[in-house]
Amino acid sequence: MRRPMVAGNWKMNMTLAGTRELIRGLAAKLSSNAPIDVTVFPPFVYLFAASQAAQDTPIRIGGQNLWPETKGAFTGEVSAEMLREAGCRYVLVGHSERRHTIGGADREGRTVGEDDALLNRKLKAARAAGLTPVLCVGETLAERDAAQTQAVLTSQLEGGLRGQSSAHVAMMLIAYEPVWAIGTGRTATVEQADEAHRHIRAEIARMFDARTAELVRILYGGSVKASNSKELMTPPGVDGVLVGGASLAVDEFLGIISGCFSAKGLG
Ligand code: PEP
């Protein structure tokens, strides 16, 4: 059975004191042998403090991004090895805000964010440093309305995973995050999430093999909260959730963790 994960992406939120408080608050309610993974992704500057606060707790820490080179003239960037040294086990790769919101503009004024070729290099760098990447994929509203969801997911998977070994893909996580559901309060229906997860797993089987598809963990992300988390994690192919806004408050995030326990029949 795949081990479920509940992950919190703090984005550019939180303070140093809040980082310690939130992790201690979560740890106080989590048993050391919890049958799920709980991971938080704080901003870079709080990673050391987060790792210290999470020591001797079941909470794991991840970076929100990385640069694929090991060192050099890349002002403002952080390497996979640096994340490791800061206590990270995980790293987000290709979050929709990095694909669509952060970056320069093209001649028509459209944001040119991170593309699949760059994300492919980031996945390889994460592996080389021993980090577990969470590759984020998902369609925009225009793409869904144009019935392009599956084609977009396929193309993001093919671009990101090209040349990766099946062993690497089997141990990484994929987060299905429809762009229109992120930070909007609009959640995918269980049917939409289930359908996308099935498609992703089928594509992993096609690109690699059935065993890799069986092992890879696929999370749903997009306006998950305590009140909808159980339902969203009910399909067997949804192995957990990646949570933004609702991961910033201890009780709400604990509610999502408890939704995961119920959905997966873990007590
Ligand atoms: C996210 O940032 O990955 C996310 C899913 O955000 P939210 O839960 O706020 O929609």
Structural overview:
With about 270 residues, this protein is of the alpha/beta class. It has one domain (about 5-265): Aldolase class I (TIM Barrel, Alpha-Beta Barrel), CATH 3.20.20.70. It has twelve helices and ten strands. The protein has an eight-stranded parallel β-barrel, surrounded by six helices. A two-stranded antiparallel sheet has the order 5-6. Helix 5 crosses helix 7 (about 150-160), helix 7 packs across helix 9 (about 190-205) and helix 11 runs parallel beside helix 12. It is globular and about 45 Å long. The mean pLDDT is about 95. The structure holds phosphoenolpyruvate (PEP). Phosphoenolpyruvate binds near residues 182, 222, 223 and 242. Phosphoenolpyruvate (PEP) binds near residues 222 and 245.
Top keywords for this entry?
single chain, 12 helices, alpha/beta, binds phosphoenolpyruvate, TIM Barrel
What would a concise description of this structure say?
The chain has helices at 16-29, 47-54, 80-85, 96-100, 116-128, 141-145, 149-161, 166-171, 190-207, 210-215, 226-232, 250-263, and strands at 5-9, 37-41, 59-63, 90-93, 104-105, 111-112, 132-137, 173-176, 217-221, 240-243. The protein is α/β, with parallel strands linked by helices and 267 residues long.
CATH topology: TIM Barrel
Number of strands: 10
How many domain modules? 1
List cofactors, ions and other ligands. Answer: phosphoenolpyruvate
The CATH H-level superfamily is Aldolase class I
CATH architecture: Alpha-Beta Barrel
Task: Report the biggest beta sheet as strand number plus sense, adding barrel if it closes.
Answer: 8 strands, parallel, barrel
Stretches with pLDDT under 50, minimum 5 residues: none
Distance between the termini: 16 Å
The percentage of residues in β strands lies in 15-25%
> Which structural class do you get from the secondary structure elements?
alpha/beta
CATH class: Alpha Beta
Please count the helical segments: 12
Strand order of the largest sheet: 1-2-3-4-7-8-9-10
From the spread of the alpha carbons, the general shape counts as: globular
> How many whole angstroms does the radius of gyration measure?
17 Å
Mean pLDDT: 97
